[in-house]
Amino acid sequence: MNPDELSAWRKAERSRLIAAREALDGATREQFRQRIDAHLEGAFPRLAAAKLVFCWPIRGEYDARHLAKTLRGRGALTALPVVVAPRQPLVFREWHPGVEMAKGPLDIPYPLNSPEIVPEAALLPMNGWDTKGFRLGYGGGFFDRTLAAVANKPVVIGISYELARMETIYPQSWDIPVDWVVTERGVYRRDGDGLAFLGESKDGRTAA
Question: Could you tell me which CATH number the domain at 3-199 has?
Answer without folding.
Answer: 3.40.50.10420
